[in-house]
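Bench log, entry 3. Co-assembly request; chain sequences pasted below exactly as received.
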Amino acid sequence: ETGVTQTPRHLVMGMTNKKSLKCEQHLGHNAMYWYKQSAKKPLELMFVYNFKEQTENNSVPSRFSPECPNSSHLFLHLHTLQPEDSALYLCASSQHPTGNTEAFFGQGTRLTVV
Amino acid sequence: GQQLNQSPQSMFIQEGEDVSMNCTSSSIFNTWLWYKQDPGEGPVLLIALYKAGELTSNGRLTAQFGTTRKDSFLNISASIPSDVGIYFCAGPLDSNYQLIWGAGTKLIIKP
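Structure output for the full assembly:
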């Protein structure tokens, strides 16, 4: 139990579907993050939320839409995705909003776009 | 932009062998982090280094913060089957504290 829970663990969706990924952290952290992990590539930071406010959007296409209703929950809404968006999507949290050292990760959602 | 270069990309070793891997950058980092990712799981922090020259151990794992602040090393002694996985180095940017990640070193233990 890492304290960060992601659902679903696996998701297959068509390019015209709309789906959402959910992340919940039970660690009392103030910062939450979405990462994309593709095979043989470094983790790519997508979004950063500090105290529920989005502070970073690393040029992510608008077909990915994050939502952070409170400091414990983070969503990633997906629509009209492309096959190249297939990857492992990882959520993470950290205590300090000014830095994401010692980030704690969820198990990820394995997304396949068909 | 800043990048972290990890080597080797993968390692095939026998159980019981010692393992060494490293991470280098063209820029200075003030913190080095080593994570391990098991198959089907998210990365888990193994060791955090905050001071140049620092040597820190976590069980059979030992990591060092290079004195130039541009590199870090991770050693695993007497490897066991549960050591398999991907090891990542990471460091935060001074500008916005976002973590920069290496591409990982995949450790495979030969039966």
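The longest strand of chain B covers residues 85-92. The interface with chain A takes residues 4, 31, 33, 40-45, 48, 88, 90, 92, 96-104 of chain B (CB under 8 Å).
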